[in-house]
Design goal:
Layout: E1 4-9, H1 13-24, E2 29-33, E3 46-47, H2 49-58, E4 66-68, E5 71-74, E6 80-83, E7 95-97, H3 100-114, E8 117-120, E9 122-129, E10 132-139, E11 143-151, H4 158-162, E12 172-181, E13 189-191, E14 203-209, E15 215-224, H5 231-246, E16 260-266, E17 274-275, E18 278-280, H6 296-312, H7 318-329, H8 331-343, H9 347-357, H10 360-374, H11 385-401, H12 405-413
Parallel strand pairs: 1-2, 1-11, 2-8, 5-13, 11-18
Antiparallel strand pairs: 3-7, 4-7, 5-6, 9-10, 10-11, 12-15, 12-16, 13-14, 14-15, 17-18
Helix pairs in contact: 1-3, 1-6, 2-6, 6-7, 8-11, 8-12, 10-11
């Protein structure tokens, strides 16, 4: 097999975007995945506004995707707050709903059409010294040699582990469980749910519209470094579905589809995104928004940034250039990762916060800013009162997270 300029491990949104951008620029790129496409993936299936912008800039058309605008948040006391979809200076005022089975296949096929060489195989290890990686090993045998390796192989990244770029004991883990229902819903809903009064579920539930007129129902939670807590998503899922029926969002008799779960690695905590000739992108780099679990937009951003770094300099220097791009593009997540890690240990305080934010006298004043802040849309927002409030919240969060253990880790890992 010929030597490649880059080998991308994982053909999800991060990997396929990296491969697409590299191939379009004339690079010799291999795109390796252990699964064949199309394949399913646990997800809320919403591509956020920044992701929609990236698709437009790359000229990628996603057929049958459903535009999604405003979002409804239902608080612990069952009061609702409407978060308006506000267009920014450099992103649209809507998201897109599209099953990951279809969306990921569109990106994969675009990368292959651009010239990426697809390889269906499982990666078992890296070749060379961890700081001077020269390629990857495949099962049941075989090697691929390349100047740069991009690990885009998900939260449980084998590349990240083999390169010594992740400390799973420090990572900020989450877990989400999703099922489809043949029930239409107009607006996406986020639910701050209390299985017990004043004991908020340590995450949130959702019911989102799907492109085919049904609904995507899920329950996600943050577990910190203790991954055993993930079982709560499965244990509570049926109870959460019953709660949706009580609210009238699902009929009393409901037949869910197959349940599918997946791990989230949030806020870049515990992960060094690049070193030597190895770059990590998407979930492998821990780029999930720690406030609400979004990952598709960040995955495409990081895949594109990885390609830009590889194309813009010699292989040995690509890591430094890539890390600089991530520092600028993911600052919001690094500020909020310590906040998220702290609040999950205080369910009463979080329940109170949810009640306050959805109270009639408060929700109208803060809903627009809340939407910007929660969805990482402050940067690039239109000048407005909402942006000013969101900027103030950002400064408060930065001050609150400064000198925390997580903030100290970021400083040492940079």
């Amino acid at each position: 097999m010929p030597r490649f300029d880059a080998v991308i491990v994982g053909a999800g949104p991060a990997g396929s975007t990296a491969a697409l951008c590299l191939a379009r620029a004339g690079a010799r790129v291999a795109l390796v995945d252990s699964r064949t496409f199309p394949r399913d993936k646990a997800c809320g299936d919403l591509i956020g506004p920044r992701g929609v912008r990236t698709l437009d800039e790359l000229g990628i058309t996603v057929p049958r995707a459903q535009p999604v605008g405003d979002m409804m948040v239902i608080g612990p006391s069952r009061r609702a707050a409407l978060l308006p979809a506000l267009p920014g200076l450099d992103y649209p005022g809507h998201a897109l709903a599209m099953p990951r089975r279809d969306f990921d296949a569109v990106l994969f096929e675009a990368a292959v059409r651009a010239g990426a060489f697809p390889i269906h195989a499982r990666v078992t290890g890296l070749l060379g010294d961890p700081r001077e990686v020269t390629g990857i090993q495949l099962a049941p045998g075989g090697e691929i040699h390349a100047d740069v390796i991009v690990g885009a192989d998900g939260a449980n990244s084998h590349v990240a582990d083999a390169a010594g770029l992740v400390d799973t004991r420090r990572a900020l883990w989450g877990f989400a469980l999703r099922s489809y229902f043949d029930v239409p819903i107009q607006l996406p809903h986020i639910l701050l749910w209390e299985p017990q009064r004043w004991r908020l579920f340590p995450g949130y539930g959702w019911i989102f519209p799907t492109a085919d007129g049904g609904s995507n129902v899920g329950l996600g939670l943050a577990v910190g470094a203790d991954r055993t807590g993930a079982r709560a998503a499965g244990d509570r899922f049926a109870e959460f579905v019953t709660y949706l029926a009580e609210l009238g969002l699902l009929p009393p008799r409901h037949t869910p589809g197959h349940r599918l779960g997946g791990w989230l690695k949030m806020g870049q905590v515990g992960t060094v995104p690049a070193r030597g000739r190895v770059l990590l992108a998407g979930d492998a780099a821990g780029l999930i928004n720690p406030l609400q679990g979004e990952g598709i937009a960040q995955a495409m951003f990081s895949g594109r940034a990885a390609a830009t770094a590889i194309l813009g300099t010699e292989p040995a220097l690509a890591a430094d250039r890539y890390r600089a791009s991530l520092r600028q593009g993911t600052a919001h997540h690094r500020i909020n990762a310590p906040i998220q890690a702290g609040i999950v240990r205080h369910p009463i305080a979080v329940s109170l916060t949810g009640r306050v934010l959805t109270a009639p006298l408060v929700r109208g004043a803060v809903a627009g800013a809340w939407g910007l802040y929660w969805n990482d849309l402050v940067r690039g927002a239109q000048p407005s009162r909402n942006r000013s409030i969101a900027h103030a919240a950002t400064r408060l969060a930065a001050a609150a997270s400064a000198h925390s253990k997580i903030d100290t880790w970021f400083s040492q890992a940079s």
